[in-house]
Amino acid sequence: MAFFLSEIQRYDAYPPTVASFIRIPVSMYDGRGSSLHRGSNYFSGHANGVRMSKAATDGKWDTETLTRSFPGTGIPGGDVRDGDVIGTHGDMGESWLSAVKEALPDGGGHLDLGCGSGRMTFALANRWAPDGWSIGADRDEETLDRARARATIENLPGARFLALDVEKEDYTAILSGRLPDLVTAHLCMGLEIVSRAASVLPPGGMFACVALHRDLWREIGRPSRFAIAETEFESMLERFDLIPQFLRAEVEVLEIENPRDFLESSLNADFVSRWKKSGRWDTLNRYLGGGGRRLIARAQLQCIARKVAP
Ligand SMILES: C[S@@+](CC[C@H](N)C(=O)[O-])C[C@H]1O[C@@H](n2cnc3c(N)ncnc32)[C@H](O)[C@@H]1O
Fold it and tell me: Can you give the pTM of this predicted structure?
């Protein structure tokens, strides 16, 4: 918690962005207190099949912040669109995904934890199919059924989706003796998952994961219970002999000029209903009603790490 507070102070001290929609690299989440580094050149090296992020070469996080405003200012590509606001925190990072594709050898084996409807399996199909395999594990039967149906439609017999509590069960049973080249955990991350992933990865195998960052929605004081900070993330990896090759934080800040329109017309119905249920809707209303105009609408920590022998 102490680290989280010091991050907030550093963030508040950072000057407000002058223009929306420009990707602004900052080092605000760098727990080591380094000076600003540019986040525009993510790939500077190539190691073990993964192009390394520039920051990962020196063990630091590349942080990139995108500021958008509501209503939009008319800058192409930058405007907030209907239903495209804070429900997008689960979007997959493009540079992380490209690096993950490189981490999986052609025809390799892939295990996806908390697979949902199989986004990772399908995003990586060009790598593992047709000669390799991809196993997705989730405890939600409904999403597993959607994944299975899509695998049938896309003619991917090497894809399997299995019901499993990925925080409690051992993965060896579902792997039937096979060793994965890559284990992914996209927005399903925690100590139990990292430890189990590391235990089935051979030395040289890759672990690619994304977690919500603690600063997501921090203005309304209700972070997700799954959110973590950089230091926590790093110590989990280190504990299980996972060496980071790619470390990136992606943050989207929304500047809200017209809170009433924002609340009434910009958010998708699903999102509003979930936030009402969780009580966040009231806190968001109180924050905006009290004059709050900035909201961290998306904040992710993205990583790719290589397993080494203990
Ligand atoms: C935010 S979704 C992400 C889904 C998918 N990885 C994606 O990015 O599209 C989190 C998923 O993790 C699953 N999940 C959470 N905890 C789990 C657990 N202990 N065992 C199995 N699945 C779990 C949920 O059912 C859900 O499908």
Answer: 0.80
